[in-house]
Amino acid sequence: MNNLKRKILTICLTALICVFFVKISAANADEINPGTDSTSTNLTDASNNVLPENNANNNNADNNSENNANDKSDKKENSQDDKKKKIDKKYKKLYKQAKKELGKKYRYGATGSKSFDCSGFTKYVYKKALNKKLPRTAAQQYRSAKKVTKSERKSGDLVFFGSSKHNITHVGLYIGDGKMIDAQNRGVVVENVNAPWWKAVGYSRPYKFN
């Protein structure tokens, strides 16, 4: 009888010890798992924090690049506009001076300011408006300046007339649209370059407006 009681007691103690160890193991597992989950969560949060910043940096870089490109384009356009304004301003001075002489008399050998011959007129308006000194005769004015073709001609160029480029007898100031201001027998007038009494043989550019 005593042996049976001892066996039952031993079994009960063994069972209690097993239950105790099981509880301790479960408690240890709970302590370990939360730490792992926390680490994983922290890594995820860190990843989430970094990605939006990287995206923001990329967006900023793209925006900066686009803004720089726009700034360069604006500067280029502004520079071209400024350049065009300077060209227009200089030509307008020349054109204004030439128009002031309209109606004045023609006199062979005259260089202004009350009367002109053809090369005296072009010499006078270039000097007066742009402080550009031209040679005295039409032939000399043609030879001394840069030659341009009819398709290249611009307002402010000189147009020359004669039987050939080697026999120039007349010069006028080209003002665009196939017209010029020149001093001829009727005085200083506006007329067509292709007038039937003239034969255009060349163009020159005594002044570089740009």
Using the coordinates shown, work out and report the CATH topology of the domain at 101-205: endopeptidase fold (from Nostoc punctiforme)
Which strands sit side by side, in order, in the main sheet?
3-8-4-5-6-7
Residues in β-strands, percent:
15-25%
What is the H/E order?
Answer: HEEHHEEEEEE
Radius of gyration: 48 Å
Please tell me the CATH architecture of the domain at 101-205 by its name: Alpha-Beta Complex
Helix-and-strand structural type = alpha+beta
Low-confidence stretches: 29-48
Global outline: rod-shaped
Count of individual helical segments: 3
List the SSEs and their pairings:
Layout: H1 2-100, E1 105-106, E2 115-116, H2 118-130, H3 138-144, E3 146-148, E4 158-164, E5 167-176, E6 179-184, E7 187-192, E8 200-205
Parallel strand pairs: 1-2
Antiparallel strand pairs: 3-8, 4-5, 4-8, 5-6, 6-7
Signal peptide: 1-29
Biased composition (Basic and acidic residues): 69-85
Keywords: Hydrolase, Protease, Signal, Thiol protease
